[in-house]
Design a protein that fits this description.
With 169 residues, the protein is mainly alpha-helical. Helix content is 62%, strand content 5%. The chain is built from four helices and four strands; from the N terminus they run ααααββββ. It comes from Ideonella paludis.
Length: 169
């Protein structure tokens, strides 16, 4: 049974984002089914999933950079961490003949991705709406205005929505 099935709960009502996410879910399912047949076949399907994910995360990272989405946000950081892990699994399988990480990471990707899509990607989608982002031209109809300098002693905790945390606590 796949660790993730596409549902309305995952939909963000953005054709481009949803299509990319549906492809991720399909590739994850294909990798899970393939590894159940053989780890070697599973690795081939897993590599297709990783290749897709490199492009998928790169696309979102590019949108964040183009639209001024909180440069110090943790969304990009999570993409980097997950891709590093996914690539490490390939190294273990190919270079060390150890398929254990592959069989362990696949069932964890579904729940992780569902949470990531429903939180971080939902916030990104909302931001893209707010700036009037056009996916075809990658331009904005309502670019963000430069942020005012924070008050001394106040830190913008990287939440991307302007909430501040006082360092005077």
């Amino acid at each position: 049974m796949p660790s993730l099935v596409w549902s309305d709960e995952l939909a963000l009502n953005h054709a481009q984002i949803d299509a990319t996410h549906q492809e991720f879910v399909a590739l994850l399912t294909a990798a899970e089914e393939a590894v159940a047949r053989s780890v070697e076949e599973g690795l081939v399907a897993y590599e297709a999933l990783v290749e897709h994910t490199v492009g998928h995360f790169g696309q979102e990272d590019r949108w964040m950079a183009k639209t001024g989405f909180a440069p110090e946000n943790c969304h990009n950081g999570q993409h980097h961490q997950v891709l590093s892990l996914l690539k490490e699994v390939i190294v273990y399988a190919k270079d060390k003949g150890d398929y254990g990480p592959l069989t362990r990471v696949l069932p964890e990707l579904g729940p992780w991705f569902a949470n990531h899509a429903q939180t971080m990607d939902a916030i990104l989608a909302s931001h893209l709406d707010a700036v009037g982002f056009d996916f075809a031209t990658e331009t904005m109809t309502r670019p963000p205005q430069p942020a005012a300098e924070p008050e001394p002693g106040v830190s913008h905790c990287g939440d991307g929505v302007g909430k501040a945390c006082s360092s005077h606590a």
